[in-house]
Amino acid sequence: MEENEDVPKDFIKLKSEKLSVDEVSELVVSPYCGAVSLFIGTTRNNFEGKKVIHLEYEAYTSMAETEIKKICRDVRQKWPSVKHIAVHHRLGVVPITEASVIIAVSSPHRAESLEAVMYCINTLKASVPIWKKGPHWNMHLVLEPPVQEVLLE
């Protein structure tokens, strides 16, 4: 592969279908890089002692994509050796154990990709308009019977 064929790329996707760790990690692989770091955020079965059946995400899609692009630009400024960045976030219902977000970063060495992945997820959660329906966000938390749904104010 010629060097100009492997220019740095950002892969951003918001979708309602199940996310694939293999697909996302393969997007960032590069012959110039010895590290691919991943973060996979999954739906757990509990929240503050309550059983959770699933989570649901919604987004202001165009603004979310713009904000994720800003995060990618920030990563490239902070860690210039980063090659490729992939951020895939699921929207809609996400069952227990399935991924809601997958972030992958490649770089020549592990330190940069690990730091960049942590920066990506922390900044995404703080600034990107993607909302998890749950009690902290004044929306629905879906619980196992006998309580089906609870609207918290």
Describe this protein's structure:
The chain has 153 residues and is of the alpha+beta class. It has three helices and eleven strands; from the N terminus they run βαββββαβββαβββ. Strand 10 (140-142) and strand 11 (149-151) form a beta hairpin. Helix 2 packs antiparallel against helix 3. The protein is globular. It starts with 8 loop residues before the first strand and ends with a strand.
Describe the structure concisely.
This protein has helices spanning 21-28, 61-78, 110-127; strands spanning 9-15, 35-42, 46-47, 50-51, 54-59, 84-90, 92-95, 99-107, 130-132, 140-142, 149-151.
List keywords for this structure.
153 residues; alpha+beta; four-stranded mixed β-sheet; three-stranded antiparallel β-sheet; 3 helices; 11 strands; globular; disordered C terminus
- Rg from alpha-carbon coordinates: 17 Å
- Which structural class should the secondary elements be placed in? alpha+beta
* Pattern of helices and strands: EHEEEEHEEEHEEE
* DSSP strand count: 11
Helical content stands at 25-40%
Taken as a percent bin, the fraction of beta residues is 35-45%
Biggest β-sheet strands, sense, barrel: 4 strands, mixed
Characterize the overall form: globular
Distance between the termini: 56 Å
**Which stretches are low in confidence, meaning pLDDT under 50 for 5 or more residues running?**
135-153
Strand order in space, largest sheet: 1-6-8-2
SS element count, helices: 3
Mean pLDDT: 88
